[in-house]
Design brief:
Alpha-Beta Plaits, six-stranded mixed sheet, about 30% strand, eight-stranded mixed sheet, about 30% helix, 2 domains, 14 strands
């Protein structure tokens, strides 16, 4: 007997796994789908994650996606199904996965007359798993007419869904910059090249870059380090930040601006540098026709909220760049906690799993 969607949510929440290490998670999903083996085809294009094919006619496919990975964060909720390790589903991926699993069981069990792909995607948090799935070519085997995904949040009340026509989530690019100088004793600074001075100059020059306040933009720096001991001129300095824009092109343009600033510092100070892009997610775009269609369909069952754009990053952007897409926030607020995403106290109620299933069913029935 397969687990219910809520039971699977509890199992995954107790046993969270990091990006591209979701082996037990993948196994649990596959094992609990075995009762439908005659009506579905399970593809494993990567070591973790699954693409489940439900094919019943000659028409196109609708793609529904959930992310399955967790965060390197220690849970503090104290709930009965709290994490058994040092990781946590603090971004609600256990809910996303359980909702997609429950929706799959409904669609296959009800013999729905529509072709559907169910994507249980690894590596959303740190590795751009959506792009890796697409790079395998698995999705190109199918005629996909539209793609859908959700993300829980306690910003909106339970029983609501929220979305935005056009950009919903920002393009997000990790940026790592390192400065290289030459160490010396601080009593003889003329014998060294202080890499930290290059970092300081960079910060000042970044602040002086003119920005159009009408265009949403963030260059945030979350981590800075330099040197090794107090009496040695730092031979290296490093910062880690992120660019958030509503356009991948604007992100590319600003990244080039960073390179020009660093070249200028190198010319003036002889401080060398390296600049690298970490994870990069394009903006998530909601197709306006799908938005209108689903907003109308949702009105009878859900409180539909126009959310506007968010500067949050989400790798569903890779999928929305390829197919007409609709992504939405699934409200979980109003319960005992309102901790926010990526917080050790974040814990959507179990009713959010059924709400997610109902939202996917509503979308399916609108076609």
């Amino acid at each position: 007997m397969s687990l219910t969607a809520v039971e699977l949510r509890h199992l995954l929440h107790q046993n969270p796994e990091l990006s591209f290490e979701e082996y037990a998670t993948t196994r649990a999903i596959a094992e609990n789908l075995s009762e439908f083996s005659a009506r579905i085809k399970v593809h494993a294009p990567l070591e973790t994650g699954l693409v489940v094919e439900y094919h019943v006619n000659s028409g196109p496919y609708l793609l529904f996606r959930a992310d399955i990975d967790a965060l390197p964060l220690e849970e503090k909720t104290g709930c009965q199904f709290s994490s058994n390790n040092a990781f946590m589903h603090a971004c609600g991926h256990d809910v996303h996965t359980a909702a997609l699993y429950g929706f799959l069981k409904y669609a296959v069990g009800a013999h729905v007359d529509k072709n559907i792909l169910f994507l249980f995607q690894p590596g959303e948090e740190t590795g751009g798993g959506a792009q890796r799935i697409m790079d395998t070519g698995i999705l190109k085997r199918f005629n996909i007419s539209a793609a859908f995904s959700t993300h829980v949040t306690d910003e909106y009340p339970a029983g609501s869904i929220a979305s935005n026509p056009g950009v919903l989530f920002a393009s997000a690019r990790e940026v790592d910059i390192e400065f290289f100088g030459e160490s010396s004793h601080i009593a003889f600074p003329e014998k060294g090249i202080n890499a930290f001075n290059g970092l300081r100059m960079f910060l000042d020059m970044i602040d002086a870059v003119p920005q159009n306040e009408a265009i949403p933009f963030i260059f945030g720096i979350g981590k800075i380090s330099a040197g090794c001991v107090r009496n040695i001129v730092p031979a290296s300095a490093r910062l880690e930040g992120s660019i958030r824009t509503l356009s991948s092109k604007l992100s590319d343009d600003f990244y080039e601006t960073l390179g020009r600033i660093l070249d200028s510092i190198k010319t003036r100070t002889a401080i060398n540098y390296s600049i690298k892009t970490g994870s990069f997610y394009p903006e998530v775009k909601v197709d306006e026709a799908l938005y209108s269609q689903i907003k109308k369909a949702a009105s009878d069952k859900f409180n539909f909220i126009v959310s506007g754009y968010k500067m949050t990053g989400e790798d569903f952007g890779f999928i929305s760049r390829e197919y007409p897409s609709f992504m939405f926030w699934l409200g979980t607020g109003g319960g005992q906690t309102s901790a926010g995403l990526h917080n050790p106290m974040f814990l959507p109620g179990d009713e959010s799993v059924q709400n997610g299933i109902e939202a996917f069913k509503m979308i399916l029935n609108s076609f």
